[in-house]
Design a protein that fits this description.
It is a single chain. The protein is mainly beta. The chain contains two helices and 21 strands. It folds into two domains: about 110 residues, Metal Binding Protein, Guanine Nucleotide Exchange Factor, Chain A (Beta Complex), CATH 2.170.150.70; about 110 residues, Metal Binding Protein, Guanine Nucleotide Exchange Factor, Chain A (Beta Complex).
Length: about 280
């Protein structure tokens, strides 16, 4: 039996295997919802799924019939499909070794321009051939020179970043995995005065882990899509890269906190890896 929970711990559940499928989805909707480069989901029989707590804290996304999230911390909630007798659970919220690793990438035709796939898994431009479902995506945003644009899943929240961001990192810490409900977070750091809200900032909620020195997340309260979070005490804003609509012009510099990475996610490629936070950050 595998247990799962949102970042704040309000929503909790358990699911028994065996997990039938694990996939990485790069579609624009998943990137917006999770704020990450891709979403990783596992599929198992619905008969093995059980809520433990927090069903009352789950809100359906206004932008998607099959997405929901914790109203306190924004973590993605499991998708239950009674007609197919299946449960689809976001792997970043699950604990321990799942006995399975990602088997393929889907919707690589929508892959973020700042993310490079470095493993040898099969890749599909859209749905895998065995799945016949409609495709829903966000419309492309025309780029503007000197400005990086971003928005939430429903589009009610929009922001802009002026000039070049400070850096971009892939973070594998357990908080990022739960907060983004993903294999890892990809975060962009910008100076506070370089982040400008275009609309919807009153619709953004923030959650800070009580025992953490500086970790927190922000999300749109209507769709659950990831949003930037300002950290005035540290002089910068953390922007979830999956929320970006246009290319920021920089790429991930390293993998950090790999000492606590998900056991089911192999890190490939040549980016430097640090067990915790590099000393220069």
């Amino acid at each position: 039996m595998t247990q799962g929970a949102c970042l704040c711990g309000t929503v909790r559940y358990e699911i028994s295997g065996p997990f039938q499928t694990m996939l990485n989805c790069h579609c624009s909707m998943c990137r917006k919802f999770h704020g990450s480069a891709f979403a990783t989901a596992v599929v198992a029989p619905l008969s093995g799924f059980r809520w433990l707590a927090g069903e009352h804290a789950i809100r359906a996304s206004c932008a998607s019939d099959n997405r929901s999230f914790c109203i306190t911390c924004g973590s993605a909630a499991p998708l239950l499909v009674p007609e197919a007798q299946l449960a689809l659970v976001h792997a970043g919220n699950l604990e321990g070794d799942l006995g399975i690793e990602p088997q393929f990438h889907q919707f690589v035709g929508s892959r973020a321009p700042w993310y490079t796939i470095t493993d040898s898994l099969p890749q599909f431009e859209g749905w895998p051939p065995q799945i016949q479902r409609p495709v829903v995506s966000r419309p492309a945003v025309p780029p503007r020179e000197g400005v990086t644009q971003g928005s939430c899943l429903c589009g009610d929240v929009a922001f802009e970043l002026d000039g070049a961001p400070i850096l971009m990192m892939n973070c594998h810490c357990s908080r990022c995995r739960r907060g983004r409900s993903a294999a890892h977070a990809t975060n962009v750091l910008v100076a506070l005065d370089k982040l400008r809200w275009v609309r919807g900032d009153a619709q953004v909620a923030s959650y800070k882990v009580p025992e953490a020195r500086r970790f927190g997340v922000a999300f749109c309260t209507r769709c659950g899509g990831a949003a930037p979070r300002k950290s005035p005490e540290h002089g910068f804003a953390v922007v979830p890269a999956g929320a970006l609509d246009t290319d920021p012009g920089i790429r991930p510099r390293a993998h950090i906190f790999v000492g606590s990475k998900a056991s089911w996610f192999p890190i490939t490629g040549e980016l430097p890896q640090f067990a915790e936070l590099p000393p220069q950050i």
